[in-house]
Design goal:
With about 290 residues, the chain is mainly α. It contains 16 helices and 4 strands.
Length: about 290
């Protein structure tokens, strides 16, 4: 990449960090995609529509998701150049737009989740420190739909007695309020009474907090303890279960979007496919014409 192109990419990433609140992982992914494009076409900042149209053939062996991501990075980059007056035209219309089919998330049914809770509660009844921690983790994962990174980084004082919400810092450092159930509040209170003091994290480990990898291992071990195939379960699967079971219970999709911290409602809409049986039942039983037919 030429020094001029590198300077443009740096300016673009500065904008993404300041205005869009992009995480360092997102910024690194954008930089990598733009550098790969520069290697393929030469001068990135001066690329023409014809130059970009040739990328489709060069990316033919890549996965559609990778092509879509690289195209999105380039479209946003050239949009930034135009908005900032660094070039007059946007050549990105010729970039490939692969059609992606979003995979349906893996979920657990309510009975399987109940089995995990029963096994975790039986172990916690002993008062063992690790068992109390694991029950608190499970209650927050399934009861509040937290992302793994959000859960492990919770400060010690995040959950307070009588406070029905906790403040979570999610993707892009965006904050949101997440409801906490009375069950989760009790489980966390028991854990905090037993856990060692003097640490700033709710779930400390070593010199910092519990890692996402360790959380993944803990959740799989809890699944195995409940007689569920460990490979079917992860922190993210429990987050999906939280969302799907809420939707089954009648939650509004916009409310679900807020609870999950999704920037785009389209991300939340995948749960309408997961719970399609309930939606069909709603149409057949609640639609005015269905009522009239009776």
């Amino acid at each position: 990449m030429t020094p001029d192109d590198r300077a443009l990419v740096d300016r673009f990433l500065d904008m993404m960090a300041a205005e869009a609140g992009s995480s360092r992982h997102t910024l690194a992914a954008y930089r990598n995609d733009l550098e790969r494009a520069a290697e393929a076409i030469g001068l990135l900042g001066e690329a023409s529509a014809d130059d970009l149209s040739k990328l489709g053939a060069q990316w033919a062996e890549l996965a559609p998701s990778t092509v879509a991501r690289r195209s999105a990075a380039l479209r946003r980059f050239f949009g930034f150049l135009v908005d900032d007056g660094l070039r007059k035209d946007d050549p990105s219309a010729t970039l490939p737009r692969p059609r992606l089919q979003r995979p349906l998330p893996r979920i657990l049914d309510a009975d399987e989740v109940q089995r995990m809770f029963e096994a975790a509660e039986d172990r916690a009844a002993s008062g063992e420190l690790i068992a109390l921690r694991n029950l608190a983790l499970l209650e927050l994962l399934y009861g509040s739909g937290l992302r793994a990174s959000e859960l492990v980084s919770l400060p010690r004082g995040a959950v307070r007695a009588g406070q029905p919400f906790l403040m979570v810092r999610g993707k892009g450092s965006k904050e949101r309020l997440v409801p906490i159930s009375s069950r989760a509040e009790r489980a966390v209170a028991r854990w905090m009474e037993a856990m060692p003091g003097g640490r700033p994290w709710l779930f400390p480990s070593g010199k910092t907090h519990l890692s996402r990898v360790r959380l993944f291992q803990i959740v799989r071990a809890m699944a195995a303890d409940a007689g569920i195939a460990p490979e079917r379960v992860s922190p993210h699967v429990l987050r999906h279960a939280f969302a799907t079971h809420l939707l089954s219970g009648g939650a509004d999709l916009r409310v679900l979007q807020s609870l999950l911290g999704h920037a785009d409602i389209a991300t939340t809409q995948i749960y309408t496919h997961v719970d399609s049986a309930r939606l069909v039942e709603l149409v057949n039983t609640r639609h005015p014409l269905a009522m009239r037919g009776r």
